[in-house]
Design brief:
By secondary structure, the chain is an alpha+beta fold. The protein is built from 2 helices and 8 strands, in the order H-H-E-E-E-E-E-E-E-E. The radius of gyration is 18 Å and the shape is elongated. The chain starts with a helix and ends with a strand.
Amino acid sequence: MNFLFSINKTFFLVISIIYFSQNQLLAQDAGVPNSPFWENVRFGGSLGANFSNGYFSGFLAPKAIYDFNRYTSAGVGLAGSYNNTSRYTTYTAGGSIIGLLRPIRAIQLSTEFEEHYVSRDFKLDGSNLSDSYWYPALFFGLGYNTGPVTVGIRYDVLYDSNKSIYANAFMPFVSIYF
């Protein structure tokens, strides 16, 4: 039941972000002046899917950041994923807080705290096992920034191989903000 509540909250937040960003675009088209706050907000994130014989994995992670100046930004994000094989099924839903520092235009340093609700179902030797828990991750990253796109690597200092939703503590990333 907690998982469904988390999914509903995640869905509501995604719809809210889309609604407010669309209203902002409509106001621009109608000639309504922007507020200084919304002029400094950028939206982006990532999505992906992986298909193979008997395996599916997909994720969606929208994010919004506020640029304080050309050097610093902060924001929030949402994330959800689904993985399914013949032996297990995993759902996750969560959010994150993001901090970005660009000491020079080409280099981006990042800190991101994520908290995910994880629900796992295993089918092993004819028995079904279920596990649900909250999992935190704290990433420190380094990236190459080319304007709206940043490519880099990040490291989870809280990584736990038994509970993490990620394969290991190091993770390459590509982020896009408009």
